[in-house]
Every structure is written in C-alpha cells, then in structure tokens.
Design brief:
heterodimer; A: 113 residues; mainly beta; four-stranded antiparallel sheet; 12 strands; 0% helix; B: 117 residues; seven-stranded mixed sheet; 52% strand
C-alpha cells in the first residue's frame, strides 16, 4: 500500500539556518503530495501542496518540488525563524488510497535564537 | 479555502461515560469524512472513514463498538467514544475533502483533546 517516509527528528537549527526535511513516498497511483505543519497544542495546517510531477509548492518561505523520478517531496526553507518551530508532516493522497491521507511519522523542528 | 470545524475543542470526562465529538464542513458538502487519532509526539493514525448515509469503515484494530461514528448529513459527522477509559485520552482530528475541488486536498478540523479521568 501507499506509504510516506520522513527523516527522523528532532531537528534543531539556529535561527537563519537552511532547512531540509527529506520525504519520500511509495504509491501505486499518481498521488497529490502535501506538507502539513502542527504547532504545539494545535491542529494541522496545510503548509503547501503539489498535484503533479515537477510542481513546486511554496508558502511562507517554504518550498517543495514533486519529483516523480525519485518519488520525493523534500521540504526546504532558506532561513528559518524561531516561529517555525513545529512538527512537520509529509503526506499523500490519491484515488488508490480512497482519498485517505497517508501521513509520514512527522519531523519535529526546534529553532533556537 | 474550505473550513472544517470540530466541537468541542477540549473535553474532560469521567471514566465510564460517553463523549460525542462533532465534525462539520462549513462551506462544502462532504460525502466522506475521516477520523484520526494522535498520541503525544506521534503521527496521525486513521481510525475510520465516515460515509454519509451508510456505515463507517474502520481501520484494522479500531473497535467499532467503542468508537461509534454517525454521518447523518452531508456536513456533519460525529464520533462517540463510549464507556471512555483513561487510555482513550488523545487528540482526535477529523478531515474532509471538497468533492468539487480539483485535487485530493483534505481539510482538517482543529482537533478535540479528550482527557478521561
């Protein structure tokens, strides 16, 4: 079945550092890919998405490109801020998963001043 | 974008009682909604798929008699935790997809934190 793998956390970075969180997926269909963010004590927020190969999703300085050849959707940000401290989930959804969202395990990010 | 609400946001109940959590799609109709459970510092675990007008589909290992799901209308699904015990304490999140949208994006509710004492 479909699955999502993320790099293990927690990740600790200094403010203004470059961020990469790796995400790879396995899917039998042609999924849409998502990054969700969860701030402490809150629900999920959609950070960005991509629906087809080579699409680049971007939001709030974060970017991720849908790479079908490597089945990857790595999240990047050029300069992180303390306010970016949160848990980031890579996810996919498609018809073969019956619209269910398949989540990765999440990566906790802490940004220190 | 589409909005999904949940009520209540937090609930504390005594062991042995039942608790109902509501999930509403506010500006779209959803024939299917999903219920997730999240333990501290863990990912979301899909519990069940709620289908309007029919029985819910439960994931393996989820007790259907304990977690009752009712999807009575195109904008409302409810999850009832029956005879709650402390191990049912968790963060419960629902989601729904707008069938008129062009992709598979799910809209998530803000979650309900259940504490069973």
């Amino acid at each position: 079945g479909d699955s999502v793998t993320q790099m293990e956390g927690p990740v600790t970075l200094s403010e203004e550092a470059f961020l990469t969180i790796n995400c790879t997926y396995t899917a039998t269909g042609y999924p849409s890919l998502f990054w969700y963010v969860q701030y402490p004590g809150e629900g999920l927020q959609l950070l960005l998405k991509a629906t087809k190969a080579d699409d680049k999703g971007s939001n709030k300085g974060f970017e991720a490109t849908y790479r079908k050849e490597t089945t990857s959707f790595h999240l990047e940000k050029g300069s992180v801020q303390v306010s970016d401290s949160a848990v980031y989930f890579c996810a996919l959804s498609d018809l073969t998963s019956y619209d269910k969202v398949i989540f990765g395990p999440g990566t906790s990010l802490s940004v220190i001043p | 974008g589409a909005v999904v609400s949940q009520h209540p946001s937090r609930v504390i109940c005594k062991s042995g009682t039942s608790v109902k959590i509501e999930c509403r799609s506010l500006d779209f109709q959803a024939t299917t909604m999903f219920w997730y459970r999240q333990f501290p510092k863990q990912s979301l675990m899909l519990m069940a798929t709620s289908n309007e007008g029919s029985k819910a589909t439960y994931e393996q290992g989820v007790e259907k008699d304990k977690f009752l799901i009712n999807h009575a209308s195109l904008t409302l699904s409810t999850l009832t935790v029956t005879s709650a015990h402390p191990e049912d304490s968790s963060f419960y999140i629902c989601s729904a997809r707008d069938p008129l949208a062009g992709d598979y994006e799910q809209y998530f509710g803000p979650g309900t934190r259940l504490t069973v004492t």
